[in-house]
C-alpha cells in the first residue's frame, strides 16, 4: 500500500518540476535574445485587435532593416493606463509609449526638443501645427504626433431620408441641428434626433464652449468668470433644453452603441467609429460640428503620439524608431485606421478630396489655436472629476440642475 | 521505535515544533511576498508619492487630508458600507437557500446545481460586460423584455436610486461559489442525524434549525468574513459597469483608492486610503471573530470541552 | 425525508425561477455571439438571428494567438492548483489541529492578508518581482501559490476544525508520527474540501485579469483572460468576439466542475466512515 502511494507522489512531483521548468525556461530564452548584441526596445501600444497585427507587421519591417535594434511590441489594450502607471511607478516603464495625456505623465517622459531640432525645421513643419500643441506641455515637446482625430457629427442618412430632411452641410448652426433633431424624433418608433453622453468627458465637452467663444479657464487657469460665463451657461442650457424637449437622449457610454441601434439621428464623436458603423450596417454621413451663430465651430483634438521614457537606456535608438513610426511610410501603412498627421501624406493620398476624411481635416484647421484646459491647469485629473460630476447633474434626469447654479458651484 | 524513557521528552519537543513546520510555507510566503510590500505601502502613505518625479516626506498629512479635506472619502465610505449591508446578508441568504435547494433528492438536481454554479465560473470582466450590455435602459434587452410585459423598466445605470441595486443584481449573480461552500458542508452532515430527528418528530424546518445550521456555523463564519471583505473591496464591477456613476452613487471605496492611485497618480494618498480600509476590515473581522465564540460550534472544540468536564 | 407532490412542485418552481436569473445572461451572450454586426445592435433586439453565425466563435479564436494564451493559462492554472493544494492543506492542518504559542496572532495575521487592498501593494510587489527578474514571466503568477492563500487556508481550517479530536489521539497512541497522521488520516478525509479548493482556485486563476495585466508584457506570455480583455479597446467594445470568447472560456472550468461534483457530493463525513 505504501509503495504505490509514494510512486504517485513521485509522479506528481515530476509533473510539477517539469511544468515549473517549462514555465521558467520559456522566459529564459526571451532574456537571451536581448544579449546577442542588439539593443532591445519595449514599445507599448493601446491599440487592440487587427490594428495590433498591422503594427506588428510594421515593427517587423523596422527590425529587419535595423540589425542592431530589436523592437518588441507590447499591447495593453483598454487598461493601458493602469499598466503603464504600474510600470512607471515601479521604474520599469517601456522605452517608447503611446501617449495622449502628457500633463499627467510628463515627469516620466523625456523632453524631445533637442532630438527634433537635430532633424531640422522642415521635419517639424511637415506635421500639422495644431498637433504639436497637443504633444507638448508648456514649452517642452514630449511626444511625436502619430495620429489624431477631431470630432464630427455622424448622421444616419436613412433616418434623414425617412424624415424627408436634407443632409446637413458644412457651416450649419446649432439651430439647424435642433430643428433637424425635432423632425427626426419619433417617440412611437423610439427614434431620437440627437444623442450625447450623459456623463460627458470634460476634456471633450470643452469644444462646445470654444465654439461659443468660451472655455473652462482663462490662460492663467482661473475658472471663475470663464466656466460660469454667460456664453458657457448658454451652451449647457442649450444641451439641457434638447433633453427636456425630448429631441435628444443621453447615452450611457460614448454613444456608439445607441448610434449603432439605428434609432439615433445624430451623434458627435471622433473617427474611431468609421468602420464600426459601416459593419453595423448604418448608412451614415459626417459633417462639421455646427456653429453658434457666426462663430466657427471648433473641435477638441484627440491626439495620439509616442513618447520616450525618461529612464530608457537607449534613447538614440528609441528616437530612431520613433522617427520611423511617425514617418511617411508608417503613416501610409496605418491609413486604414488612422488619420495621417503629415501634410505630405495628406497631399499625396489626396485625403482632402475624401468626402469623409476631409471633414476631420477641416475641423482640425478650424480648431488651431485652442488649448484644452488640461494643458493649462495644474491638476486637471481632479478638476476633471469635479466637472464631470457637475455636468452629470445638469444632464441626469433625476437631478437636471440649473446650469448656472451648477457651474457656479464649481467655479467659486 | 522509541524506548519508553525518552519518548515523552522527545514527543513534547517535536510537538512544540511540529505545528510551526506545518505552517512554515505560509510564514515564508508571508515574509517574502506580503510583508515587504505591506511595509513599503505604509511608508508610502507618509509621503507625497507621485508615480514619477520627486517623492516628499509629509508625515501624517495624507491622513489629515483624508479625514478633514476630502468629502469624497466620507461619501465613498458610506456608499460602500451601504452596499455591504445589502450585499452580505442577501448573498448569504441566497447562497444558503440555493445550497439547500440543490441538496433536495429530486430528479435533475445535478443540472440545476450546474446552472446555479455556472455564473461563478465567469470572470469579473466578462460579468460586467454581459450585464452592462443587458442593462442599457434605452436599447438594452432587459428593459425590452419588461416592456413586452407592459412594465416600464428603470434607468438601471442612469438613475442613482437604481444603480446600487444594479450592482447588487450583477454581483449576486456569482453567488455560486458561496453556495458551493455551503453545499459541501451540508452534504457532510451524516444522514443519520436527520433520521434520528425525523423519528423524534421534527419537521424539515425544525431539522434545518436544530441540525443543519449549528453544524455549518464554521462555514457561515467563513462566508460572512469573506463576503464582508469582498463587499468592502468591490472594484471590478463598479470600475467597468458604472465607472462610479451615475452621479457618483456607486463610487465605492475601492474605486476611490484605485482612482487616487491610477488616475490621479497619488500613490502616497492612495496608500493612506488603503491602510485606513485595511484597519477597518481588520477590526470588523476581529469583532466577528470575537462574536463567533458565541455562535460558531467546532466539533473539535466541543469534544475537547466535554472531555475537560469529564476529567474534573 | 419524504417528499410530497406539493413540495416537489414548489421546489421545482423555485429552481426554475432561479435558473432564469442565472441562465438568461448566458443565453443572451450566446445569441449575441452568433449574430452579425448589423443584428447585434438592432432595436428591437432579435432573439433569433436570421443566419446563426457559429463561425463567429472560430473567427474570435483566430483573431488572436489564443492557442498560446490557452497554453499559458493551463500552465498557470495547473501549477497554482498543485501549489495551493500542497501548501494550504499543510498550513490549515497546522492551524486547525494544534495549539501553539502565538497561534491566534498568527492566524489573525493570515486573515489580514486577505484584507490588504490590492492597489497599494501592487507597485511594491512589482518592484520586488522586477528585482527577481520575474517580470514578463509566468513566475509572479505561479510561485506565490506554493506558499498558500489566506482564503483557501481559512476555508480548509473551518472544515478541519469540525472533525472530532479523537481521531489523531487514537493514531498517536498507535505510534504514528505527526506527519503520518496528517498524511494517512487527514488527507483522505479532506478529499471533499480539497476538491472544492481546487475548483475555486482553478476558476480564480483561470479568470485572473489584473495579475497577468500587470506582470506580463508581450503577447507570447498572455493568458486567456488578457486575450479576452484585448477585445475591449479604449473607445470601442467588440461585443461579438467578447461574448464568444467568454463562452469558450467557461468550458474548461465547467468540465472541471462536472468531474469534481462527485467528490464534493461525498462530503467530508462520507470519507470518515
From TrEMBL, chain A:
Stored InterPro entries: SBP
One Gene Ontology term, aspect cellular component: ATP-binding cassette (ABC) transporter complex, substrate-binding subunit-containing
Single Gene Ontology MF annotation: maltose binding
Pfam families: SBP_bac_1
CDD domains assigned to the protein according to its UniProt record, in alphabetical order: PBP2_TMBP_like
Top-level taxon of origin: Bacteria
Keyword terms, alphabetized: Signal, Sugar transport, Transport
GO biological process per UniProt: maltodextrin transmembrane transport; maltose transport
Residues of the signal peptide: 1-23
UniProt similarity note: Belongs to the bacterial solute-binding protein 1 family.
Protein name in UniProt: Multiple sugar transport system substrate-binding protein
Organism annotation: Neobacillus niacini
TrEMBL record, chain B:
GO biological process, one term: transmembrane transport
Membrane topology: Multi-pass membrane protein
Major site of localization recorded for this protein: membrane
Pfam families in the record: BPD_transp_1
Domain of life: Bacteria
Transmembrane segments: 20-47, 83-103, 115-134, 162-183, 220-241, 274-298
Domain ABC transmembrane type-1: 77-288
GO cellular component: a single term: plasma membrane
Keywords: Cell membrane, Membrane, Sugar transport, Transmembrane, Transmembrane helix, Transport
Coiled-coil positions: none
Protein family per UniProt: Belongs to the binding-protein-dependent transport system permease family.
Name of this protein: Multiple sugar transport system permease protein
Organism: Neobacillus niacini
From TrEMBL, chain C:
Protein name listed in UniProt: Multiple sugar transport system permease protein
Taxonomic source organism: Neobacillus niacini
Domain named ABC transmembrane type-1: residues: 70-260
Spans traversing the lipid bilayer: 9-31, 74-93, 105-126, 141-160, 181-206, 239-260
Pfam families given in the database record: BPD_transp_1
Nucleotide-binding found in the keyword field: no
GO biological process, one term: transmembrane transport
Membrane topology term: Multi-pass membrane protein
PANTHER family, sorted: ABC TRANSPORTER PERMEASE PROTEIN MG189-RELATED-RELATED, ABC TRANSPORTER PERMEASE PROTEIN YESQ-RELATED
Cellular compartments annotated: Cell membrane
Highest taxon, organism lineage: Bacteria
GO cellular component terms listed in the entry, alphabetical order: plasma membrane
Family the UniProt entry places it in: Belongs to the binding-protein-dependent transport system permease family.
Keywords carried by this UniProt record: Cell membrane, Membrane, Sugar transport, Transmembrane, Transmembrane helix, Transport
Amino acid at each position: 500500500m505504501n509503495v504505490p502511494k509514494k510512486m504517485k507522489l513521485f509522479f506528481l512531483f515530476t509533473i510539477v518540476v517539469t511544468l515549473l521548468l517549462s514555465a521558467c525556461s520559456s522566459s529564459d530564452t526571451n532574456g537571451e535574445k536581448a544579449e546577442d548584441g542588439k539593443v532591445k526596445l519595449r514599445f507599448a501600444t493601446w491599440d487592440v485587435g487587427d490594428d495590433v497585427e498591422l503594427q506588428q507587421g510594421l515593427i517587423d519591417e523596422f527590425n529587419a532593416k535595423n540589425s542592431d535594434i530589436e523592437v518588441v511590441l507590447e499591447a495593453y489594450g483598454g487598461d493601458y493606463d493602469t499598466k503603464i502607471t504600474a510600470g512607471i511607478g515601479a521604474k520599469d516603464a517601456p522605452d517608447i509609449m503611446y501617449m495622449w495625456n502628457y500633463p499627467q505623465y510628463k515627469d516620466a517622459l523625456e523632453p524631445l526638443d533637442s532630438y527634433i531640432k537635430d532633424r531640422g525645421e522642415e521635419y517639424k513643419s511637415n506635421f500639422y501645427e495644431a498637433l504639436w500643441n497637443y504633444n507638448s506641455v508648456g514649452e517642452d515637446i514630449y511626444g511625436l504626433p502619430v495620429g489624431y482625430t477631431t470630432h464630427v457629427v455622424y448622421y444616419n442618412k436613412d433616418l434623414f431620408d425617412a424624415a424627408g430632411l436634407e443632409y446637413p452641410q458644412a457651416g450649419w448652426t446649432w439651430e439647424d441641428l435642433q430643428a433637424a433633431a425635432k423632425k427626426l424624433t419619433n417617440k412611437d418608433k423610439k427614434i431620437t434626433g440627437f444623442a450625447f453622453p450623459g456623463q460627458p468627458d470634460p476634456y471633450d465637452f470643452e469644444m462646445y464652449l470654444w465654439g461659443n467663444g468660451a472655455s473652462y479657464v482663462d490662460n492663467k487657469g482661473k475658472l471663475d468668470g470663464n466656466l460660469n460665463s454667460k456664453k458657457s451657461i448658454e451652451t449647457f442650457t442649450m444641451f439641457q433644453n434638447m433633453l427636456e424637449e425630448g429631441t435628444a437622449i443621453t447615452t450611457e457610454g460614448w454613444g456608439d452603441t445607441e448610434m449603432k441601434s439605428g434609432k439615433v439621428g445624430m451623434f458627435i464623436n471622433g473617427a474611431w467609429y468609421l468602420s464600426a458603423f459601416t459593419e453595423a450596417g448604418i448608412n451614415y454621413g459626417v459633417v462639421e460640428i455646427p456653429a453658434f451663430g457666426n462663430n466657427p465651430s471648433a473641435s477638441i483634438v484627440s491626439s495620439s503620439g509616442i513618447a520616450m521614457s525618461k529612464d530608457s537606456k537607449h534613447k538614440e535608438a528609441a528616437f530612431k524608431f520613433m522617427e520611423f513610426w511617425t514617418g511617411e511610410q508608417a503613416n501610409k501603412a496605418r491609413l486604414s485606421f488612422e488619420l495621417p498627421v503629415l501634410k505630405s501624406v495628406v497631399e499625396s493620398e489626396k485625403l482632402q478630396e475624401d468626402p469623409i476624411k476631409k471633414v476631420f481635416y477641416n475641423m482640425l484647421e478650424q480648431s488651431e489655436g485652442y488649448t484644452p484646459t488640461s494643458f493649462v491647469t495644474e491638476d486637471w485629473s481632479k478638476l476633471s472629476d469635479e466637472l464631470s460630476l457637475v455636468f452629470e447633474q445638469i444632464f441626469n434626469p433625476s437631478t437636471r440642475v440649473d446650469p448656472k447654479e451648477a457651474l457656479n458651484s464649481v467655479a467659486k | 521505535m522509541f524506548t519508553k524513557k525518552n519518548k515523552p521528552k522527545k514527543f513534547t519537543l517535536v510537538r512544540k515544533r511540529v505545528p510551526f513546520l506545518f505552517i512554515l510555507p505560509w510564514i515564508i510566503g508571508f515574509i517574502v511576498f506580503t510583508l515587504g510590500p505591506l511595509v513599503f505601502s505604509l511608508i508610502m502613505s507618509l509621503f507625497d508619492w507621485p508615480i514619477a518625479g520627486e517623492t516628499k516626506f509629509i508625515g501624517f498629512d495624507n491622513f489629515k487630508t483624508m479625514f478633514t479635506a476630502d468629502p469624497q472619502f466620507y461619501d465613498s465610505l458610506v456608499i460602500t458600507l451601504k452596499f455591504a449591508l445589502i450585499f452580505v446578508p442577501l448573498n448569504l441568504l441566497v447562497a444558503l437557500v440555493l445550497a439547500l435547494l440543490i441538496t433536495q433528492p429530486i430528479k435533475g438536481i445535478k443540472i440545476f446545481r450546474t446552472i446555479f454554479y455556472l455564473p461563478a465560473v465567469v470572470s469579473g470582466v466578462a460579468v460586467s460586460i454581459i450585464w452592462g450590455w443587458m442593462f442599457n435602459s434605452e436599447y438594452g434587452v432587459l428593459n425590452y423584455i419588461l416592456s413586452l410585459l407592459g412594465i416600464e423598466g428603470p434607468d438601471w445605470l442612469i438613475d442613482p436610486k437604481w444603480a446600487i441595486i444594479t450592482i447588487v443584481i450583477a454581483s449576486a449573480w456569482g453567488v455560486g461559489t458561496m453556495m458551493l461552500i455551503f453545499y459541501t458542508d451540508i452534504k457532510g452532515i451524516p444522514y443519520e442525524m436527520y433520521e434520528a430527528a425525523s423519528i423524534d418528530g421534527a419537521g424539515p424546518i425544525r431539522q434545518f434549525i436544530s441540525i443543519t445550521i449549528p453544524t455549518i456555523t464554521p462555514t457561515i463564519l467563513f462566508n460572512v468574513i469573506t463576503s464582508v471583505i469582498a463587499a468592502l473591496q468591490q472594484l471590478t464591477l463598479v470600475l467597468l459597469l458604472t465607472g462610479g456613476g451615475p452621479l457618483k452613487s456607486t463610487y465605492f471605496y475601492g474605486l476611490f483608492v484605485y482612482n487616487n492611485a491610477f488616475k490621479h497618480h497619488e500613490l502616497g494618498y492612495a496608500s493612506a486610503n488603503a491602510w485606513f480600509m485595511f484597519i477597518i476590515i481588520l477590526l470588523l473581522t476581529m469583532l466577528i471573530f470575537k462574536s463567533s465564540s458565541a455562535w460558531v460550534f467546532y466539533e473539535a472544540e466541543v469534544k475537547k470541552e466535554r472531555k475537560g468536564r469529564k476529567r474534573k | 425525508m419524504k417528499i410530497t407532490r406539493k413540495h416537489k412542485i414548489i421546489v421545482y418552481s423555485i429552481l426554475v425561477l432561479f435558473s432564469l436569473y442565472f441562465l438568461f445572461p448566458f443565453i443572451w451572450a450566446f445569441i449575441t455571439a452568433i449574430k452579425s454586426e448589423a443584428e447585434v445592435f438592432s432595436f428591437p433586439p432579435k432573439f433569433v438571428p436570421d443566419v446563426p453565425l457559429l463561425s463567429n466563435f472560430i473567427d474570435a479564436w483566430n483573431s488572436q494567438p489564443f492557442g498560446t494564451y490557452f497554453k499559458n493559462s493551463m500552465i498557470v492554472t495547473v501549477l497554482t492548483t498543485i501549489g495551493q493544494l500542497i501548501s494550504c492543506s499543510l498550513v490549515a492542518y497546522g492551524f486547525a489541529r494544534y495549539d501553539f504559542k502565538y497561534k491566534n496572532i498568527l492566524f489573525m495575521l493570515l486573515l489580514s492578508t486577505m484584507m490588504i487592498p490590492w492597489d497599494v501593494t501592487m507597485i511594491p510587489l512589482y518592484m520586488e518581482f522586477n528585482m527577481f527578474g520575474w517580470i514578463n514571466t509566468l513566475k509572479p503568477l505561479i510561485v506565490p501559490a506554493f506558499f498558500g492563500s489566506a482564503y483557501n487556508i481559512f476555508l480548509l481550517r473551518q472544515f478541519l476544525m469540525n472533525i472530532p479530536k479523537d481521531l489523531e489521539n487514537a493514531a498517536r497512541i498507535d505510534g504514528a508520527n505527526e506527519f503520518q497522521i496528517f498524511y494517512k488520516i487527514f488527507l483522505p478525509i479532506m478529499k471533499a474540501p480539497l476538491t472544492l479548493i481546487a475548483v475555486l482556485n482553478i476558476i480564480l486563476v483561470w479568470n485572473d485579469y489584473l495579475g497577468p495585466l500587470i506582470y506580463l508584457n508581450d503577447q507570447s506570455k498572455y493568458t486567456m483572460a488578457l486575450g479576452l480583455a484585448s477585445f475591449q479597446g479604449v473607445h470601442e467594445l467588440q461585443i461579438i468576439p467578447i461574448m464568444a470568447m467568454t463562452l469558450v472560456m467557461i468550458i474548461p472550468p465547467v468540465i472541471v466542475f462536472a468531474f469534481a461534483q462527485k467528490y464534493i457530493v461525498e462530503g467530508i463525513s462520507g470519507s470518515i466512515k
